[in-house]
Amino acid sequence: MASTLNPYLTFQGTAREAMEFYRDVFGGELTLTTFADFGLADIPNPEYITVSYTHLTLPTSDLV
């Protein structure tokens, strides 16, 4: 029986660096979305310009 693993990981302020590391190690295609991409760039909180969601498509599975 085949199964798919889709883990959800949380990184406090280091999501971009962590996911780029995983991409470099495992290969695949990385998609990054920031809070600014959702139109929240005008909010003065730096948290909103950081990564809100990532998706790493690996040759055998996905890491989100």
Helical element count? 1
What is the element string, with H for helices and E for strands? HEEE
Low-confidence spans: none
Provide the structure class.
Answer: alpha+beta
- Radius of gyration, in angstroms, nearest whole number: 13 Å
Assess the beta-strand content as a share of residues.
Answer: 15-25%
| Topology, number of strands | 3
Through-space gap between termini: 23 Å
Short description:
By secondary structure, the protein is α+β, with helices and mostly antiparallel strands.
Q: Could you please describe the fold and organization of this structure?
A:
Helices cover 19% and strands 23% of the residues. With 64 residues, the protein is an alpha+beta fold. The chain has a three-stranded antiparallel sheet, with helices on one face. The longest helix has 12 residues, at 15-26. It starts with 14 loop residues before the first helix and ends with a strand. The model has no long low-confidence stretch (mean pLDDT 76).
Feature tags:
three-stranded antiparallel β-sheet, alpha+beta, about 20% helix, about 60 residues
Topology, pairings included?
Layout: H1 15-26, E1 29-34, E2 51-57, E3 62-63
Antiparallel strand pairs: 1-2, 2-3
